[in-house]
Amino acid sequence: MKIISNFLKMVILLVAVISMFLLTDNVKADTVVSEKYTYFGTNGTVYKMNKKNGSVNKVINLHSKTKYLSDVFAVKGNWIYMYGIVAKEEVWYRGIYRIKKDGSKYEILDKGYIYSPQMESKYIYYSKFDDATKAYRICKIKFNGKKQKYICNNVDASRYEIKIYKKRIYYYAADMNGVIYSVNLSGKKLKKSFSHDHLLGISDFYLYKNEIYLTAALNSDVNMYIRKQKLNSNKLSIVLTGNFISGYGDRIYYSNNYDKTDLYSYDISSKKIKKISLKKKTDTEKISNVIGGKKWIIVYTYSDSDYYNRVYIMKINGKKQRMFKSYMK
Fold first, then answer.
1. Looking at beta carbons, which pairs linking 261-265 to residues 24 or more positions away fall under 8 Å?
2. What is the pTM of this model?
3. Which of 12, 106, 151, 159 is the most exposed place for a label (fewest CB within 10 A)?
4. CB within 8 A of 124, min separation 6: which ones?
5. 311: closest CA among 265, 284, 280?
6. Is-contact 49 70, C-beta < 8 A?
7. pLDDT at 25
8. How far apart are CA 49 and CA 82, in angstroms?
């Protein structure tokens, strides 16, 4: 009986080990899929770009759900998480929604005046207008749309931008007073992470290696500068003359004018600046966003005069450039 008992123990242990390897392989396979592609949305369709060679494939068309897809902000498991304007049967609202990669299921997680969703740990964090307090507040919700609640009750958050960095949520106040606050993921332990009395206002910011990069003008100067400051420090320095667009890793994308009609990249490590010329861009096109990557980038533009939005794909140095999409707003 003892031999049989030992044999059963060995079988159970072997099954456990095999199961562990199978589960590990599944997790790795899912992680590889997420790391291999950059998912992005435009004009009601989701695409995926191969991060190595820049090739693009259509994942799913969402025109039956909405034609105003804005951003894919996360891909987790078999779900693609998106944020933007949902328009169906003449009903318009901003929403956070998700759809399975095969298109078999579509879910609206939350809707309202919603901005800047970020996925962290077990929740999606975002800025949402609260009808009860008549102010924008930071909100969190589970990946499946459950357990939605407001956090950070004591400060009116801006609707424009929140960022999560090292398990803290950073945002600037709605009064645009040159202060960036941070709280933990529970909305507690509020502190001023950046403050400058003479800034006219902060339009955007980026966190990298315990430094904060932001676009702001001083009271005495109407020019736009990208400035940096170490977190919890008071030493502010000018890095670039221009208007911040986006950041990825050690690279900042910006324009050297207020209207964002041109595009530059700045390598934080080497401090090298590179102008990226969009070959097919018209004089009226303005750059609205850059989705960064190690080898390839996706550039979004818009034009107020001809009412076109365009999407360009190219290497980070601007080479192998092509206009991917052009469509009416």
1. 261/285, 261/286, 261/287, 262/287, 263/287, 263/290, 263/299, 265/316
2. 0.81
3. 12
4. 74, 81, 96, 109, 117, 118, 140, 141, 142, 143
5. 280
6. no
7. 28
8. 16
Residue 315 CA to residue 38 CA, distance in Å, equals 14
The span from the CA of 257 to the CA of 263, in Å, is 9
Three-state secondary structure call for residue 27: helix
Whole-number CA gyration radius for the chain: 23
d(CA 291, CA 265): 12
Does residue 24 sit in helix, strand or coil?
helix
Q: Give CA–CA dist 76/242, Å, rounded.
A: 35
For residue 86, the tally of other CB atoms under 10 A from its CB is 22
pLDDT at 45 (0 to 100): 85
The whole-angstrom separation of Cα 301 and Cα 290 is 9
pLDDT at 1: 47
Q: Residue 156's closest CA among 187, 135, 134?
A: 135
* Average pLDDT per 10 consecutive residues for the chain, totaling 329 residues: 40 31 29 67 86 92 65 89 72 82 87 90 91 87 94 67 91 73 91 76 86 78 78 84 91 86 94 93 89 93 81 95 83
Contacting residues for 181 by C-beta, under 8 A, at least 6 apart: 155, 170, 171, 172, 173, 190, 191, 192, 193
